[in-house]
Amino acid sequence: MKNRKTQGFVLIDVDVVALNNAGKNTQSNNDNAIATKSIRKNGRNYVYVSGQAWRYWWREALQKNSGWNLSPITRDGKIAFTNADPLKYPDDDVFGYMRAAKDAELDENGEPVKDKKGNIKMTNVTVTRISPLKNSAIISAASVRPEENWSSMARQEGDAVPYEKQEYCATMKGMFSLDLSMVGTFSNYDRTGYKNLSIVLQEEAIKNGAEEIDDPFVTDSKGKPKKLIRLAKEVRQKRAVDAILALKTINGGAMQTNNLGDVTPKLIILATTKTGNHPFSHIVGNKGQRDEEVVFNFDGLVEVLKDYKETFEETVFIGRRCGFMDEIANELKTLETLPNIPTVKILSVNDAIDQYCVQMKSQIE
Q: What single-letter DSSP state applies at residue 188?
């Protein structure tokens, strides 16, 4: 089992939006004032969309556009959890989970213990799964000062009801990584994040065609490889491909009624690597007196392509939407003939996603 990761980098470009709000604006004198999420670095303000919000948009796109049957959510007091059934629900597989559940009680030989009536005794266990899909927040590439927009509700009789919201224009960057070796592949070790399946689900998986394979990285006390449960190849391929294709139609964000914004990528880089290291984190920066101008770091991109050449598998795909950063179009095109870097293809955003998915599908064992 090879350690293969899809590494993705995206830029989105939005105007007059409030994609992820942070509740009441404590800096305003207006009781009905909402602040957008922002954070400071080196004394500058950057707006952002939380990683959780991005994942929510992603799940929604998979449900509405890819036909995924999402795992039901159960609320129990102050906690909530999904079904934790990655066999039935692809989002439990790709996005991970944690749930307290019941499992078969095992004897010293690892066999289920039965009562006098022949029923398997159950014990309380917690199943957890580290998400194969990991993502950053989406943060503005340059510093941003949100504008205070004063509005009012005035269609009713009597005085108008004022309210405020923060809005901004920004080019925003985000990263994600999809562990291709772990999509549809489950461990059952007694360790947080790695006890993925109950005994019942493990037996169900094998009964329905899943196979047991050796874990190349984890051994037992005798030095023998521990076992992983792996779903059929076509199931794993579909889940991985669906997850990446969803970026073509992803949508979301707060206040879309009056501040509709397009959050699909305007520039995307997709590559498969042999390591979990994400190489594209610093290929976009900023400049200017207040760090408010976005700059594409072409030299930085070339540098990581050279430095990590041996970790890339096959082609690196770069997609750019016409009309966005047209000034770098010619430079990007030179990457297709530049020596000492992996093979690079420059395409439109959707073509880059489609062609990468064809490559990625062939890389899933």
A: B
Q: What is the b/e burial string over 59-86, where b = at least 16 CB atoms within 10 angstroms of the residue's CB? A: bbbbeeebebebbeeeeeeeeebbbbbb
Helix (H) or strand (E) holding 51: helix 51-66
Q: What is the pLDDT of residues 307-349, one digit of tens each?
A: 999 999 999 999 999 999 999 999 999 999 999 999 999 999 9
Total residues found in the chain within this entry: 365
What is the distance, to the nearest Å, from the Cα of residue 49 to the centroid of all Cα atoms in its chain?
A: 13
347: phi > 0 → left, psi -120 to 50 → alpha, else beta; which?
beta
Q: Can you give the pLDDT at residue 150?
A: 80
Helical packing angle, 233-245 and 349-363, nearest 10°: 160
Residues of the chain with pLDDT under 50: none
Q: Where are the beta strands (DSSP E) in 199-343?
A: 211-219, 225-230, 267-273, 284-287, 293-296, 312-320
Query: In terms of C-beta density within 10 A (0-12 exposed, 13-18 middle, 19 or more buried), how is residue 45 classed?
Result: middle
What are 244's strand-pairing partners? none
Q: Residues 353, 243: contact at Cβ < 8 Å?
A: no
Please give the structure tokens belonging to residue 4.
């293969």
Look up tokens 């430095």; give the residue: 307
- The token duo for 274 is 């042999």
* Domain residue ranges in the chain: 5-96+131-184+231-363
- Here the tokens at position 304 are 């990581």
What would the two tokens of residue 28 be? 């305003």
Joined together, the tokens standing for residue 93 give: 């597989």
Which H or E element spans position 74?
Answer: strand 73-76
Phi/psi of residue 163, nearest 5 degrees: -150, 160
| Strand bridging mode 161-179 / 33-36 | parallel
Q: Within a 10 A sphere around the Cβ of 308, how many other Cβ atoms?
A: 19
Its pTM stands at: 0.90
User: Which residues are CB-neighbours of 118 under 8 A, at least 6 positions away?
Assistant: none
